[in-house]
Hints:
Blueprint: E1 2-5, H1 15-19, E2 25-28, E3 31-34, H2 43-47, E4 53-56, E5 71-74, H3 87-103, E6 107-113, H4 120-125, E7 130-135, H5 144-158, E8 162-166, H6 169-182, E9 185-190, E10 192-196, E11 201-208, E12 213-217, E13 225-229, E14 246-249, E15 282-286, H7 296-306, E16 309-312, H8 314-318, E17 339-343, H9 349-355, E18 360-365, E19 378-381, H10 384-398
Parallel strand pairs: 5-6, 5-8, 6-7, 7-14, 8-13, 9-13, 15-16, 15-17, 17-18, 18-19
Antiparallel strand pairs: 1-4, 2-3, 10-11, 11-12
Helix pairs in contact: 5-6, 7-10
Amino acid sequence: MAVRLITENCTGCKLCPxxxxxxAIDMVEGKAQLNDNCTQCGACASSCxxxxxxxxxxxxxxxxxxxxxxxxxxxxxxxxxxxxFRRGTLExxxxxxxxxDTLGVELAAVLLGDGVAEMAKKLFASGADKVYLAQDxxxxxxxxxxxxxxxxxxxxxxxxxxxxxxxxxxxxxxxxRVAARLSAGLTADCTGLDIxxxxxxxxxxxxxxxxxxxxxxxxxxARPQMATVRPGVMRALEADGSRAxxxxxxxxxxxxxxxxxKIVEISQQxxxxxxxxxxxxxxxxxxRGLGKPENFAIIRELAEALGGAVGASRAAVDAGWIPxxxxxxxxxxxxxxxxxxxxxxxxxxxHLAGMSSADCIIAINKDPAAPIFNVATYxxxxxxxxxxxxxxxxxxxxx
Length: 399
């Protein structure tokens, strides 16, 4: 990929210097010129209204893969501005640490935002050796354009061989945009990662055909090898506050006027007590065994008594008993709570794939042959309509 200036088309409008996050465009005698700061990120090409800047993408069959080294994780802050990271970021750092050690390279995290320098310490504690830190008021809240420009430029300059992004709504928006800008391969929604040490390839596993089979994907020629990874399927490392690393401050110069998307208002939506399933430490889930939607009330009561979240099987969601954001499974949320209570859920393969990594699984089902019991830590064969109210009562009495 290369940026090419067509001088005769340049009108001297000065839109491209505003758009460039790296201060790589000078105006010389009324015409735009690139300087040595250029990272080939392509932001200027997107801003030009007069076809004076062209982003030339070369789809060559191979790149010199030996020029690329290192594993990167793109960090994502949790909403609310409390200085925390999303759980998926910490899980990716744990997995990235394993991949980097296998390859014998460093693990770096990319942290974009405004006033977030102190958060780098948490990235080191979770496994990172280095943090690339880019701060600017324009980066305070996620927007596709500026985040793509800055990240693409960083990758072009430092050339990591692997870039991992959490498959959150933000990550699913950002990763394909960056991959397209870089002509890189991207495997979306991975549930497993490994290294082919012979060829230094990232082996990426993801569900395909509605979760009926698992596809294994490698990117032999394009670099970096990019993947979004489903939160809840990897293990975060135990935080080690004694770990330290190198902070590489990335000077960026962003102009709000060049950003297409504008933030008009930020409001916290009322979520009727919902807890993000992927962040929940306790989940109580209901399935077809509940019989009708009204019976989810006893699931909610137990979840409330435990301070947990309400989950559901695909069968319950498909029946219209509960909204889809409660669905746990391969086609819903993949979760990794400390405690998962499955009530009236038989244990289809797709559901097990989404919750079997829980630390402790309690299964309640009247069918002693239910597959859910094969993965349960504790199994209760009985009537959930008797067991759940009694358990909820006992918890409330003991509170």
